[in-house]
Amino acid sequence: MGLTNYHKILIISVICLGSALNLNAQLIKDETLALANSDQTGVTSLHDASRIGRTSGSKATEFQELYDYETGGKSLIDATFPYQSFLHKAYVIMLCEQKIINITEAKTILKGLEKVDILANKTPSLRVYLPYESALIKEIGSVGGKMHIGRSRNDLDNTTQRMFLRDQLLNLIESIIRFRIVLKDKAIDNLETVMVVYTHRKEAQPITLAHYLTAIDESMGKVLDRYIELYSRINQSPLGSGASGGTSWPLDRVRVANLLGFDKVSINTIEGVAGWDYVAEFASDNAIYMSDLSRFASEIQLWSTDEYGSVELDNSFAGISSMMPQKKNPDALERTRKASALTVGQLISILTSLNSIEYQHSGVRLSIEPRSLNAVMAATHAMTGLTATLKINKETMLQYARQNFSTMTDLADLLVRETNLDFRDAHELIAAVVNDALSENKKADQITLKMIQKAAKKQIGHELKITEKQLQEALDPVQSVARKKGLGMPAVSSVNQMIASSNQDIKIKTNWLNTQKAKLEETNSNLKRLITNLSLIIK
Fold first, then answer.
1. CA distance 113 to 135
2. pLDDT for 69-87, tens place per residue?
3. Nearest Cα to 63, choosing from 50, 76, 79, 81?
4. Which residues lie below 8 Å from residue 444, measured CB to CB, with a gap of 6+?
5. Of residues 174, 306, 303, the one with CA closest to residue 231
6. b vs e for 95-121, b when ≥16 Cβ sit within 10 Å of the residue's Cβ?
7. Which of 62, 92, 116, 310 is the most exposed place for a label (fewest CB within 10 A)?
8. What percentage of the chain carries pLDDT values higher than 70?
9. Residues 6+ apart with CB under 8 A from 357
10. Nearest Cα to 396, choosing from 327, 318, 323, 309?
């Protein structure tokens, strides 16, 4: 996928998501402002003073996002406020339906809410509930105080937080799906790009880049599994729990949950305000995901070093030294790894805040801060763009595979198959060959039949019946890859099976995502319709 098409798809996807999730349209608008103002020819028009030297030119918006989350972003109060406003309206409708307030009172409160929302958008202090309620009462009189019948800030805040995290989760799931598509496309382009897989940062065995990328994709598939499972636990409404012990008012908790797009109700009223597992689980899933992403970034950074020279970052994702003209630094990779550290810190903070506190509503508990969520999104976007534009030095990769002894297991296997040697003896014999090659300053592709026979006489007391052709076939990393056709292995046929499986999994998860987005869109439309036609909701 070219850079131009990639950015077009990214922009269209985000705009579509904003349309589907009207509930957090304001948040989506803020987060995509930079994209909307970007140059859609492929790289943004973000020219700044840091773009000098070898990376002079524009910086990718996804790369800039890794800087922006550190200095920008909303507080949790500001981020959840649009959801609080939405919740008030649904709650008022339920109170009216239950005849706890009359239709005139409901209409008055709803009109007042519209006016106070405008004030709160200009005055941040009104985004806290009690000042907000005070402004409502000032606007419409004492009837504004009836909006809070049967509820507490405890269940209100827990509900708005769930609504906020629900949308953030859907945004993140969509971004990871997009990342998986880029991984898959890059794999298809590199089905025959032979390279070495490393263990302990030492050359291990020949694979292909496609084989490696499908491993990352499989990991991302499990990340999505965890997030999708989490969604069902976040999407439960605690509203109606009150301070903790419920209320004598005849609230319809299921009705208000449906109006707000929740799939179910958090039943026990103590659990409704005390439960915090969904926050800790989200933070945990973020930390696991970002650890996986950071490992991928770390490996690419290793490959991009001058010593490896296997890949090169596109200039739009790289930085420069202020002193050394030759430098082209992997800044996007390092900032992704930095973002990972932030999410781990967020998890530890949340778990520490929960440790040994009472099972009740408590101000000790920490939430997931928007900055931490923005870090996860920024890193996802950056690694998506970086992967799509990554330049692969195929010849360098193949040269390492040929010269750096990655086929020695194939050579040992040859001895086992053709000479009936047991594997341990074959292992030790080839280890002796490698030692001899290293002492003679020879590469793997310079190993000769004579060297093997010499080692065989020393190790087992006699020569082995293998041919020069068999030796060369065993030493060839391309043939090594082609021979490995088993499930999940690096041969083209096996990798294609994994790509096909990935396509199916992405399709299933995309359908799930679209279903959830459609449910929320329908919920939003229904609530707006009820507000507009309030008289129709009274039986």
1. 9
2. 988 878 999 999 999 999 9
3. 50
4. 402, 403, 404, 405, 406, 407, 408, 437, 475
5. 174
6. bbbbebbeeebbebbbebbeebbeebe
7. 310
8. 89
9. 364, 365
10. 309
Angle in degrees, CA 266, 268, 270, rounded to 5:
110
358 and 276 Cβ atoms separated by less than 8 Å: no
The amino acid occupying position 109 is I
Number of H helices, E strands in the chain: 21, 6
- The SS3 call for residue 383 is helix
**325 within 8 A of 54, measured Cβ to Cβ:** yes
DSSP H or E run through 73 = none
Query: What's the sign of the alpha-carbon dihedral 179, 184, 188, 194?
Result: positive
How far apart CA 412 and CA 428 sit, in angstroms, is: 9
CA dihedral 210, 216, 219, 225 (to 10 degrees): -80
Do residues 318 and 332 touch, judged by C-beta distance below 8 A?
yes
CA dist 184 and 214 (Å) reads 7
Residue carrying the six token digits 């009274």? 538
CB 445 within 8 A of CB 408: no
Instruction: Write the secondary structure of 471-490 as one string of H (helix), E (strand) and C (coil).
Output: HHHHHCHHHHHHHCCCCCCC
SS3 sequence of 34-55: HHHCCCCCCCCCECCCCCCHHH
Distance from chain centroid for Cα 405:
36
Whole-model pTM: value is: 0.89
Q: In sequence order, what are the beta bridge partners of 391?
A: 312
The single-letter code of the amino acid at 509 is K
CA distance 186 to 104: 60
- Taking the C-alpha atoms of residue 464 and residue 461, their distance in angstroms, rounded to an integer, is 10
What is the mean predicted confidence (pLDDT) over 443-459? 95
10-54 tens-digit pLDDT: 433 433 333 333 444 333 333 333 333 333 333 344 456 666 667
Pairing of strands 202-208, 194-199: antiparallel
Residue type, 335: R
> What is the Cα 94 distance to its own chain's centre?
36
- What is the C-alpha separation between 413 and 410, in angstroms, rounded? 5
SS3 (DSSP) at 197: strand
Cβ(81)–Cβ(125) below 8 Å: no
Give the DSSP letter of residue 391: E
CA-to-CA distance for 156 and 254, rounded, in angstroms? 15
Task: Output the six-digit token pair for 523.
Answer: 């919920």
For residues 286 and 293, give the distance between their C-alpha atoms in angstroms, rounded to a whole number. Answer: 10
In the beta sheet, which residues pair with residue 388? Answer: none
